[in-house]
Amino acid sequence: MVPEALFFSAILFVIGVVGVLTRRNAIIIFMCVELMLNAVNLSFIGFSRLYGASGQVFVIFVMSVAAAEAAVGLAIIIAIFRHHETVDLKNINLLKGWCSNCPWPNRVECIRLPAPSPSWCGCCRYCR
Amino acid sequence: MHPLAGSIAELVWLLPILPLIGFVINGAISLFTSFHAGPADPSAAHGEHDVAHAGHEAPDTHDEHAAPKRAPLHAIVTIVGPLVLLLAFGLGVAIFVAMPSHMATPFVKTFFAWMPVGTDLPIHWAFQVDQLSVMMVLFVTGVSALIHIFSVGYMGDDPGYARYFAFLNLFVAFMLVLVLGASYPVMFVGWEGVGLVSYLLIGFWFNDKANADAGTKAFIVNRIGDFGFLIAMFLIWSNVGTLDFSGVAAGVGSLPAGGPLLTTICLFMLLACTGKSAQIPLYVWLPDAMAGPTPVSALIHAATMVTAGVYLVARSSFLFSLSPVACLTVAVIGAVTALFAATIGLKQWDIKKLLAYSTVSKIGYMFIGVGVGAYVAGLFHVITHSFFKALLFLGAGSVIFGMHAAYHHTHSTEDAQDMRNMGGLRAYMPLTFVMMWIATLAISGIPIFAGFFSKDEILGSVIARAADSTLADVHWLGIPGSAVLYAVYVLALAGAFLTALYMTRMMLYTFHGPNRTGVEEQAHLHEAPPLLTFPVVVLGVLSVLGGIINLPAFLHLPAGWTGALDQWLAPVVGDATLHVTHGVAAETPHEVALVGLAIVVAIAGIVTAFVKLKPAALVPKRDAQPATGFERVLENKYYVDELYDRTVVTPVVAVSRSFLWKGIDAGLIDGVLVNGSAWFMRGLARSGSWLQTGQVGAYAWAIVIGVLAVLGAFTLR
């Protein structure tokens, strides 16, 4: 029973990882993270058959934390959507500092990028 | 058990503390009552007269002839300032009385460990009571007390009265540390301290920038000398292993006598002495130091501080006597300075400047004395010189005081210190006139007067050393030592002639002939008040009788009358003197003839002045024609200040500006090191930021690959 559970858990985890790595939509990535969490839950349940009920207790904890995390994460994604009018992570790159293709790398104010890009340039933290 | 242990000499710590207490009290009064209104000094005439004129045009303003408003607590300053000095002098006398007639070893009183550096260099705060230091204490406190009393009258109306006495007390405290210190570092504290106070007092009327600049000049020039003192101390410590006088005296024998090391130490020490004692090449600060109040010039820049260099050489006689080359250098510098300064003194019109060059010249004689190993003669001249030079300066102070008062009454802006504006003052200041003649005869070396005995002892010692001594045996820059010493004698004799000449010139132009002050002013010229004349008279008596402390042997006086100072100082400098003279007491050949020659030279100087100089033909300063030819060179002091400016000051400033400031500081430190490191780090961060794409996917890939790498590493281990 345990090896099967671990087998499916591993498959589920890899699906989650591949989803996180390959998708660009923030909500899809978020769902894939949930998949990875559930994969871990599955292996906890499996191991609890060998080592007693503590694994199941862990699952309860993980699910409650995941619920809280889902609330916060979705709120952030909504905030990002309101700000950037997109949830495509290709356009959310504030962490990098200056964008490599920005024509005005040192300016103080950001500008709205010309079409077809729908967003502000995101070059600096003064974007409004 | 030392004979002085348990005696009053245990209270030696009180000697510098007493003036220090005066400094604290007066300084506190000065700080808490200051309402400084600007310079009101007799010798700083101009600025104050401008104020007086402004007031005169507007009749409603105050009456400038009314006595100036005095600072609060003026009376306390008047009492405390001189009193601490009198107490210190009394204590000095008590210690002197308590000393046995022949004390072989100095009494060293150690108070606390001051700078214990490891175990190799335990520097203690210790005072040394021996014949030399007690002698210095006596004349420092005695002359200082007289000058403090003079200052009460001279500076009474100055707004900075309390500040003045605070500085004057502080000076005496440091001077006593200088002469009492039992090791070079303690002495150095006093050495630096008197330099500091000298700076403070030269720039006492700092509202005038020229005065402040003169103080700065003195300070900086003295720093050059202090560098020599420090190097000499370092060399002594690294080679002898101690800095106590007694320790160095005992340990210096292990060094090669006459070797380059000892000579180097002595020459660095000589550099310190030339700075503090105003000898060539560092004498330039002393004439400018006359910007200070006249009693300060008398105390610091004539009688006491400037003789510190002579004291240092005498105190280090155990070093100098082992290095004949250094001794000859000291003597040559002294002789050249004596003649050089005397020639400049010939054409000075400012009475204080003239006395300043006279001081430089006379300290040159002291250097000749201590240079040729006649330490007692040099110190003897220190004492007699302190008497008659303090007398000259205080007399000049009385003259300036009277001149200024006269000009003040008539609102004239004439120069109260210029001798061309004086003349015929003997009718107005008879007492000062007599006292100044006494001092002039003393400094010229006329028999009976104090300066005669000390100067002739120096000159006789030079001839004695030239005949037979370690100095005569060596070569100095390739010249035989005896030839150098004969040259020194000739220079000193020429300087003696010029001394008599320029001092008589000063007397003639100041006190003889017609008065040139002005008709209106003559009504206000009068003798100085008793508070000023009392110290002058005391110093006058000392200038006459001062020679009694060391009468020469050729007078054939009863035993006990001759050579008192010789016997007194024998435990301190006797060994060093004997070392220079091959271990036998020096005999001066043809001594009486030499003395006669010196007297003839001095009288010739005075007679020349009387014959050549015509005070009647002199015109006041405002009508005077500019000097021409060599006279102009002398009046401009051989352009030495200009020479130093061109060769030292300007290049130093230029190098500092273009290389040290713009090159090193702004270029290397600010540009390359400070801003450069910031630029470097910014560039590094920029290149590193290419890794930060901001794409969450890329970060996720990095995490996954990292996790796989770590897990793989654990699995495959």
Q: Quick recap of the structure?
A:
Chain A has helices at about 1-20, 25-50, 55-85. Chain A is mainly alpha-helical and about 130 residues long. Chain A folds into 2 domains: about 1-85, Helix Hairpins, CATH 1.10.287; about 95-130, no CATH class.
Report on the structure:
The complex is a heterodimer of chains A (128) and B (717). Chain A is mostly helical. Chain A has two domains: 83 residues, Orthogonal Bundle (Helix Hairpins); 34 residues, no CATH class. Chain A has three helices and no strands. The termini of chain A are far apart. Chain B is mainly alpha-helical and 717 residues long. In chain B, 68% of the residues lie in helices and 3% in strands. Chain B contains 27 helices and four strands. Chain B has a two-stranded antiparallel sheet with strand order 1-2. At the A-B interface, helix 1 of A face helix 27 of B.
